[in-house]
Amino acid sequence: MDQTAKNPVLLKLDLALQGIDAPAFGTGFLELQLEGEICARAKINPASPFKLMRGAQGDTLHRGDTQSAVRLTPPLEYVSRVSRGGIKLGNIAAVRGAYAVVELNGGCGLSMPGRVCALCRGRELTEKPGEMWPVEDVIDALGAIFNEGAAEFVLFQLGYIPGDDAGLKRLIPYVEAVRRHFDTIVALSMHPPADIRSIERAYASGIDAISYNLEAADADSLQAHFPGRARFIGRSRYMHSLSHAAKVFPSGAVLCELTVGTSPDDKICEAMAELTEIGVLPVLGVDPERIGQRTAQALFPLGQRLFDEVHKAGLNMSWARDLSHAITPMEARYFVGNAPQLPLLLHNLSKNRLGALATRSLAKMRRRLRVRWVRASFDSSHL
Amino acid sequence: MSASQPGKDPLGGPEPQLPPELLDVEVDTRPLAMVLLSHSLRFILLAAGAAVFGFILQATPPPGLSQAGERALAVFALCVIYWVSGALPLVITGLLAIVLLGICGVMPARTAYSLFGSEAVFFVLAAFMLAAAVNYRGLGRRVAVIVFARYGRTPTGLVRAIYLLSALMSFLIPEHAVAAIVFPIVLNVADSLEPAARRTRYPTALFLAMAWGTNIGGIATLLGGARGPLALGILTEATGVSISFIRWSAATLPLVAILLLVGYLVLTAFFAFEPVNIEPSVAAIARRRSQLGRISFEETAVALVLAVTVVAWSVASQRFGLAGIAILAVVALFVFELLSWQEVEGHVNWGIILMYGGAIALGSALERSKAAAFMAQRIAKKTSSPFILLAALSLTAQILGETLSHSAVVASILPVGLGLAGRFGLDLRGLTLAITLPAGLTYIMPVSTPANALAYSGGYLRTRDLILPGIILIVASWIGLNLVMHFYWPLIGMGPIAGKA
Q1: What does the pLDDT look like over A103-126, one tens digit per residue?
Q2: What's the complex ipTM?
Q3: pTM of this structure
Q4: How far is CA B201 from CA B155, B204, B271, in A?
Q5: Where in chain A are all domains bearing CATH 3.80.30.10?
Q6: B22/A137 touch (CB, cutoff 8 Å), yes or no
Q7: Which tens digit of pLDDT belongs to each residue from A265-287?
Q8: Chain B residues whose beta carbon lies within 8 Å of the beta carbon of residue A163
Q9: Which residue does chain A place closest to B89, by CA atoms?
Q10: CB–CB of B11 and A105 under 8 A?
Q11: Cα(B376)–Cα(B73) distance, integer angstroms
Q12: pLDDT (tens digit, 9 = 90+) per residue, B325-353?
């Protein structure tokens, strides 16, 4: 763990690939915070070389005779409470990193590591449509999470919904309700819509950051790993939507996840260059099942390339943060020898209370300035 | 999230509707500096208007200008800046004018408010109500569909039918109402074309036929656009001179005929020259016609009321006044239950009515305080030729009308023009027409008129395609107007030089 001890992102990758031995937590995944406020996610695996030790001084991660401090998300009270509609709040929203994640319909895995849905397998999701939580119950869950101080932002995950707007019409009541009740940043992860104007409507409705996750870097890999997405959506729609969204949303607020292992590394590098060129911030998804036998060290060049491409394009790196299942460009600075300090400085500024308030205020002001109603100009002709 | 969770909304249920405010939303993707500038521009213009107002107000009046005149000029300058720049809605600027005339002591507030009760305002109000009846009872739609079905069986025939019908209907009802009636049919016709035909310039020709037809036809009578009655109101309130309905039309019709011909030639030369298959469009019109059924009592009655009104305007407007006849026609519509108040509320552009009151009051204030004459003296020093002056005024109105509200153009230029009339010996009626008509002849920009805005909203028009043909039409309109003004109007006793008829 010598090198991983010095490089928390390498440790994050190692944890993602090898899991964590934490018998006290049963099975499933653990969300951890490593040094440098790096969010990590590890599958509980008794055979893992990483052992979690709990102590009065805090939690530590041991590998052999080396150790490093980690912080576990404490058990959250909201999980067992129920909403006004009688639904367990833990079923409605989960806390991942700094995000309160609300999965609005269950039909599609949408970039959740290890979840490959029917759509991805090549079947359109018409026979078993998903369902959506009532708006009031979602607000109850988010309110409880924010009251506990467990998350700062809201992330809506919208699975595949047939239709030109990819389900935006169904999402908007939730966004409006969040805007009404909380002063927060709202992010959205969804499949790209066929109607390009839906992207502008998404921004106008109050969504601050958006991601259309390709996962597979090239068309052949998309076809091989996600034949349904290739068939019903297609890579060109992803790229077209990402390109348009990058013009609509602030710099760095349009994300696209490329999952390591779904495509050859050179294709991922090409896709990163292609994305940054159109103003989209790539993040590297880490799914141990797709990465196979490769070590964390082997992913070093991809991390370097990620930082270099984003830095070269001059994109704001602060929007992508606290993603436990992916490497963000800001985290990728650990792979670069002399990483420039300015992005880090801006990133750190945006993380403190004042910086977060400034970020939210600027996002609101930008929306006020940029969004306009066509009817206003039509009215000017006195019809 | 499994599908069996309690309390969840199934996705298979009815799809929710988008909030109305998100339907017509767009995001300004220009660089942020540009966006900021365009947002601050409004405040800069508001401040500039206020600064100019304050500067004129506090300055010592120059020789030849009374204090009331100077204050009227200050209000006029403020209103022109706001009307031309759009820093405030036209209607609000109009109301501001009335209020400021009283506050600044240009005239007693009571007088300023009383000018709001101009006949022109009531004429425009009644014209809107008549148009509402034509629209809501379906008469306009029926006429359009029948004409298109009868005369629109070939590509050029269809363009001609849309063009001429839009123009002719604009003789009788405001051009924005004509566009609102014809647009859905034209859109249906264009969308019915085969993909190959839709990729040609032919659909552009269909929408332009509607827009240019209504704009050219709209200058023919006082009914075609509200700027005509506004000009008449300013003229009457300021000078006591009026123009009858029939004289107005007699003066404009030759110009309308020339422009309709030129417009049609430009349309066919630039947009409707390719062979296209319009069978699907013909079928779409036939389907609409079959849905119309027999003409109803209401449609017949509205047509009758409209016909009687036009005849009355032609023969009895001197005695009863344009507004009087129009209001009596509206009363008849209500007596026979051909129109409801709810329909009137939905159709009348109340903002325009309020703006007109302000513009007429301002025009009158400039005249009464001799401020218009003072401005005219200053301008008159630049030229001594009445012909050059008229050419310059009409060209200014024509160019400004392309990007500004026609009413704002008339309200800004006409008071100055009226002030110049006496010095150059111009006929007041001819001068009024020379400024009002070109302000309505707009061919390129979507913001200039509701008909253009509707044509653009069809999705087949691009500004760059309209620049060359539009410029040709602008030049043709200006030359045509000046020819008609100098060679025809004297024959019917309307100048342009007073007493030269």
Answers
A1: 886 545 554 555 556 666 665 554
A2: 0.75
A3: 0.65
A4: 12, 5, 5
A5: 77-367
A6: no
A7: 999 999 999 999 999 999 999 88
A8: 15
A9: A380
A10: yes
A11: 12
A12: 889 999 999 999 999 998 888 777 777 77
